[in-house]
Specification:
alpha/beta, 3-stranded antiparallel sheet, 14 strands, 15% strand
């Protein structure tokens, strides 16, 4: 079995005006869809970031993989590293809440982008679900969490561009947030709730969290200010939230600050910002800054490297769950197969998937079902997914039309607030 064709398709799909520490989501999220075809007719699928520098590296790597055996993942890593060493030109927008934008992680990002379709091909060739390649399923479904955002009612330029109305509406206070949570829980059955914070005054966000606690007393809660609170603010807000949280995620921006926060409050702290590779993992063990790591195979180096992270967490008695960014079904199913293979999965995983429109999925059959807060592991070979080529073409055309090539939440936010800077920590 040899690779004879690789197709990389940049796409754009609608994204609501979700607020975060870096600003606000742009009207379209960018992703790259990867299809790798072998000489025996199998097609392996992948999904990753769609920003211009990543897309350039994917394209630069593509020709080096033709003729490879998809079982040769060591060779894949070697070839990816050689391409990344050559560099790539293009605008890079760095902001700390998105480790996937960090050029120091280019090898891990590009390797992961191709490793997933390589593993998909391996499993399809063997006629087994991908999770079996990862050691087998220790759970048949994976729990995800309701992921709440403060948000505006519509994108600032939506009226003039014909952009469709946002059915979720505005969420800027406690009452609106509880309504958002109720809709999401009623629709998907989520058993836990995460609030993306670092947007409003911290005291207001704590008030909103406490309103969620009253409305959903049986649902574990998390709050994620994305490092936008100073250490004194994080300590003060942590004390206000004592007893309310399942875990406290990245309230303050440094590993040293997280360690001091944990000493001051005793609260379990989670991160996808200050522990994003094994070097930082080693330092975290020394400092005890984060007691829970939120993995993400897109920048941790793929599915098997994330399994290694899981074993490290088990060795050092550190909790494990999953981080999410705006994504579609291929990423969701890769996350699900991976999470199903990891014995130490301490908490429900994050996913942005409910925020994506029902008519903007590229996998055949439409959006993947989330029932009782969980996604079931597919039983068909590989990821168990196929591409809807009409949908792929539609989202590629949308990519060409929308004009976005690199995500920049700060630039988008300045359309609402021209003097907005977003330097963290802001509070």
């Amino acid at each position: 079995m040899k690779i004879h064709r690789i197709t990389i398709t940049p796409i754009a799909f609608r994204d609501p005006p979700l607020l975060n520490a870096a600003g606000i989501h742009e009207p379209y999220a960018l992703r790259s869809i990867i299809e790798i075809e072998t000489d025996n007719g199998h097609v392996g699928l992948g999904e990753t970031y769609g920003d211009a520098p990543v897309l350039a590296l994917l394209e630069n790597t593509r020709s080096h993989l033709i003729g490879m055996d998809p079982f040769d993942t060591n060779g894949l890593r070697e070839r990816v590293a050689a391409v990344v060493r050559q560099g790539v030109r293009g605008e890079r927008v760095e902001y700390e809440l998105a480790p996937g934008t960090d050029p120091r992680k280019d090898v891990e990002k590009i390797y992961s982008a191709f490793e997933v379709p390589f593993l998909d091909l391996q499993a399809r060739h063997l006629g087994i679900p991908l999770v079996e390649l990862l050691g087998g399923a220790v759970r048949q479904e994976v729990q995800y969490s309701a992921y709440l955002f403060f948000k505006y009612a519509q994108h600032v330029d939506a009226p003039s561009t014909g952009y469709p109305p946002d059915g979720w509406g505005e969420t800027l206070n406690a009452e609106q947030l509880v309504a958002q949570a109720r809709t999401m829980i009623d629709t998907y059955g989520f058993g836990s709730i995460k609030l993306k914070a670092g947007v409003l005054d911290p005291a207001e966000e704590v008030k909103c969290l406490k309103a969620l606690k009253r409305a959903f007393p049986d649902k574990p809660l998390r709050i994620d200010p994305n490092g936008n609170w100073s250490l004194p603010t994080a300590i003060a807000m942590g004390r206000e939230l004592a007893g309310d949280l399942e875990y406290y995620e990245d309230p303050t921006p440094t590993l040293e600050g997280m360690a001091e926060l944990h000493r001051a409050t005793g609260m379990p702290l989670a991160t996808n910002m200050v522990v994003t590779d094994l070097r930082q993992f080693r330092e975290n063990v020394r400092l005890n800054g984060a007691q829970i790591i939120l993995s993400d195979h897109h920048y941790w180096g793929g599915l098997r490297d994330t399994q290694l992270l899981a074993r490290m967490c088990e060795t050092f008695d550190i909790g494990l769950s999953m981080h999410s960014n705006s994504h579609l079904g291929i990423s969701l199913m890769a996350m699900t197969h991976l999470a199903a293979s990891v014995p130490r999965l301490s908490y429900a995983c994050d996913t942005h998937y409910p925020w994506q429109a029902a008519d903007e999925e590229v996998v055949r059959g439409g959006k993947i079902a989330i029932r009782h807060g969980a996604v079931a592991v597919t039983k068909a070979p590989g990821l168990g997914l196929d591409i809807d080529q009409d949908q792929l073409a539609k989202l590629h055309e949308q990519y060409l039309r929308c004009g976005l090539r690199t995500r920049n939440d700060a630039v988008q936010m300045r359309k609402y607030q021209p003097d907005w800077r977003g330097k963290a920590p802001r509070f």
